[in-house]
Design goal:
This protein is mainly α and about 400 residues long. The protein is built from 14 helices and no strands. Helix 1 packs parallel to helix 3, helix 3 crosses helix 4 and helix 3 packs parallel to helix 6. The longest helix has about 35 residues. The protein is globular, with a radius of gyration of 21 Å. It starts with a helix and ends in a 10-residue tail after the last helix.
Length: about 400
């Protein structure tokens, strides 16, 4: 009887892991729709190409080396992993199958890389981006993942990040920031007199659909990170994670709506969408500890922060077409730093330390990789190519050909 119960729990937890991974995989569609809606029509096919190809690259590289770097045969509390290939072997007495763990983890890698895609949109060479994706998903992300979820030195220091506000989202933003600084702004984004010229996206219905898909996928992102569901305690915790995730997103949306109305007298849809995503990113650091009311407050503040962050990056002449640096970077850091307010096991010092190490490492490593790509194959298209649009230059296929006649 005991053996049957153990096997049933194993099967249920494995199935939950797999279904959660499927939900997170669906977030790839969300990023593709969101980003394609927020770029100009002449760059739509290229942004879609980037999103689906980066997902494939992440799956291949994490299978070949990334998972091994992050989780297999590493020293506890260490910093240098034991480099190897593939995903190792099933541990005796595990709660779920090794393959389900890999599948759940690999879609997180793709999520981190998707953050980079939107920030460098409309002026980066496609194959330069894909070359960076290979290195990021194979080495950079897995290494900082080992330091945290893999039982490395940041985990030993008490750093806490339930589902990846820092490990996934802030890391993606750090890589994106390095690329954006080396790449420069889109032509016409900033005037010589210091003005900021808005470059509207081409398809708000798609951007809204993408946000809703991401919102849905986030239940797998955060809910699956509980890891288990086969007993009353874990099942109850999963329920709270779902409620808090949803509450933070809703409150973040409302926060951005209020600020945009007060600031510009308009309900700016792009800010509203980013407000929902800001709430989701912020609560991801710990959706299991706060009450739903406190989770709502975290989301609300994140929704306010993201609006001012986006305008601040513009003021600094840092061009981010989709607001990824603000949503995933600034609000990722915010999410990490508020964890101790509801989780007694976390400390502000450990959270700040972990955030600084992850951001610093990923930014410097990414800067080096981007720089190598820049001097070898180049990272930016020519002014003429940018004017024509990336669809024709990189892909040869327009997303909306009937409108270009």
């Amino acid at each position: 009887m005991e053996s049957t119960v153990t096997e049933l729990k194993f099967a249920l937890d494995t199935f939950y892991f797999l279904i959660s991974g499927v939900l997170v995989m669906w977030m790839a569609a969300g990023f593709a729709m969101l980003e394609s809606g927020l770029v100009r029509s002449k760059n739509t096919t290229e942004i879609l190409t980037k999103n689906i190809v980066l997902f494939a690259i992440a799956c291949i590289m994490f299978l070949l080396v990334g998972y091994n770097i992050m989780y297999v045969d590493n020293a506890s509390a260490g910093w240098l992993p034991s480099f190897g290939t593939l995903i190792g072997t099933q541990a005796e007495g595990a709660d779920h199958s090794l393959e389900s763990d890999f599948f759940f983890q690999v879609v997180f890698v793709a999520t981190a890389m998707s953050v980079v895609s939107g920030a460098v949109a409309e002026r980066m060479k496609l194959f330069a981006f894909l070359a960076f994706a290979v290195v990021f998903t194979a080495v950079i992300y897995p290494l900082e993942g080992y330091w945290t979820w893999g039982g490395g030195f940041l985990s030993e220091a008490g750093f806490s990040d339930f589902a990846g506000s820092g490990i996934v989202h802030m890391a993606g933003a750090a890589a994106a920031l390095a690329g954006v600084l080396l790449l420069g702004a889109r032509r016409g984004k900033f005037g010589k007199n210091g003005s900021v010229n808005p470059i509207p996206g081409s398809n708000m219905p798609l951007a809204t659909l993408g946000t809703l898909i991401l919102w849905m996928g986030w239940f797998g992102f955060n809910g699956g990170s509980q890891l288990l569901i086969s007993d009353a305690e874990n099942a109850t915790a999963v329920g709270l994670v779902f409620v808090n995730t949803n509450a933070a997103a809703a409150a973040g949306l409302v926060g951005a709506l209020i600020v945009s109305k007060l600031k510009w007298g308009k309900a700016d849809l792009t800010m509203i969408l980013n407000g929902a995503l800001a709430g989701l990113v912020a609560i991801t650091a710990d959706p299991a500890s706060p009450s739903p009311l406190f989770a709502s407050l975290i989301g609300l503040v994140a929704g306010v922060i993201v609006v001012y962050s986006i305008t601040s990056f513009d003021a600094l002449k840092i061009d981010d077409p989709v607001g990824a640096l603000s949503v995933h970077g600034v609000c990722g850091i915010f999410g990490l730093l508020v964890v101790p307010l509801s989780n007694d096991g976390a400390s502000f010092g450990a959270q700040l330390y972990g955030a600084a190490v992850i951001f610093g490492f990923v930014f410097v490593a990414s800067w080096i990789v981007w720089s190598i790509i820049k001097v070898t194959m180049g990272i930016r298209v020519t002014a003429e190519e940018e004017e024509t649009g990336m669809d024709l230059i990189d892909c040869g296929v327009e997303a909306y050909p009937e409108f270009s006649k």
